[in-house]
Design goal:
By secondary structure, the protein is an alpha+beta fold. The protein has a single domain, classed as Sandwich (Immunoglobulin-like), CATH 2.60.40.200. It has five helices and 14 strands. The chain has a five-stranded antiparallel sheet with strand order 8-4-3-1-11. Strand 3 and strand 4 form a beta hairpin. The longest helix has 15 residues. The termini are far apart.
Length: 287
């Protein structure tokens, strides 16, 4: 009986943690999926005009790409307001504003109405995409033909460090990633804003923050999607022109390394980039 009592006492101590070692398996610790598995590949948003009466016949696209640890953003924009600085930002959202979002029925979707469709700014596409503070509000400006090309790159880890920082000013338009969320750009949109101050806008059109109603007026939007194929259709130059024996069109292989792009979103194609490129920094302005 004495031995049974001792065994019971030892067993009870081990169960209660009183000096014994427990055989219980500790609860599993759940962690957020590593971001390294979340954001590889190429993503694109075809631009469609907003406020068409003043935006022009906008064409172009935003492309985001991560290759190893490099994160790249570029915007090709044409057909918009000429010689104007344009703010361009990646926002939380899964759709672009439509005519039904003109809540006061004044014929314009202003910045306040737009921000009811899409939410805060995650990445300002300014002079430094690694940090919303370091870019200094320096954005690209269109040339006299309403065209600009913008391209920036950063270390992906720097971008994520910035996105995961504490939001020191929750009242502004810039937001940080919630602790339980991973970086998923397919739940985001790009918004491009800005028209000439000479454009007559009704008093009912609102600005936003420190921007005037002309600076803040959204003129283009695109929903970001992941690309699964290379954009464009290869043009093999089937011209039907007879050639001397042994000669080819399109180089020594006979193929053309160009691509035929179509910007109509209804076709399911991936944008119209054109062939002209200029240095991104040459067209940067500050707001």
């Amino acid at each position: 009986m004495k031995y049974l009592f001792l065994l019971f006492l030892i067993y009870g101590c081990s169960e209660s943690g009183g000096g014994g070692t427990s055989n219980k398996i500790p609860p599993a610790v759940t962690t957020k999926d590593p971001l390294a598995t979340e954001m590889y590949g190429t993503y694109q948003a075809l631009l469609a005009p907003i406020n068409k009466t003043v935006s022009g016949h906008i064409n172009g696209a935003l492309t985001l790409a991560r290759d190893k640890n490099e994160f790249i953003a570029d915007v090709r924009f044409s057909g918009g307001p000429a010689s104007i600085l344009h703010t361009q930002n990646v926002h939380i959202g899964n759709k672009c504003p439509s005519e039904t979002d003109d809540l006061n029925q004044d014929g314009y979707i202003d910045a306040e109405e737009g921000n009811k469709v899409y939410k805060g700014i995650v990445i300002p596409l300014d002079d430094d995409i690694s940090s919303w503070r370091m870019g200094g509000g320096i954005y690209p400006a269109a040339d006299e033909f309403g065209y600009y090309y913008y391209s920036k790159a950063t270390d992906f880890n720097l971008l994520m460090e910035d996105l995961n920082e504490e939001d020191i000013n929750p009242d502004d338009d810039f937001i940080k990633l919630p602790a339980d969320k991973t970086f998923n750009v397919t739940q985001m949109v790009v918004i491009i804003s800005g028209v000439s101050e000479s454009v007559i806008l009704p008093d009912s059109v609102s600005g936003r923050g420190r921007m005037t109603k002309h600076q803040a007026l959204p003129i283009a939007c695109g929903v970001i999607r992941k690309l699964t194929t290379t954009p464009g259709v290869i043009d093999n130059d089937h011209t039907g022109i007879p050639l001397p024996e042994g000669e080819t069109i399109g180089g020594s292989s006979g193929g053309d390394d160009g691509a035929d792009f179509n910007s109509d979103p209804s076709t399911g194609s991936m944008g119209n980039y054109g062939e002209d490129e200029v240095e991104g920094d040459d067209n940067l302005g500050s707001i």
